Amino acid sequence: MPQLHRFDNDSKIGDVSNEQLQFLIDHLANDEDTEFYVDYTILRSLAGIGADPILIGMLENSLGHHSWMKFTWSTDGPPTPWIQVVPARPGRRGGRA
Length: 97
What we know:
about 20% strand, globular
């Protein structure tokens, strides 16, 4: 089942049906892009052309008080981060041992 995730913090927006995902791809995607951008104006436009109200509510909830949001989708869980942060070992501050 496809999942939507915020691009900025990888938090899960929610699970969507294949039909809901196809609607987003048809109306928001450029070429083969898996990233989408929405704001409240875009969400109102999507609702006006027949978007599933549950999908719109899910996106509005995730958008919250922000003016816009970039999000992505995957079929196998959250996207893999581009940079992996490895915590330092406790007690070590760098330099020579």
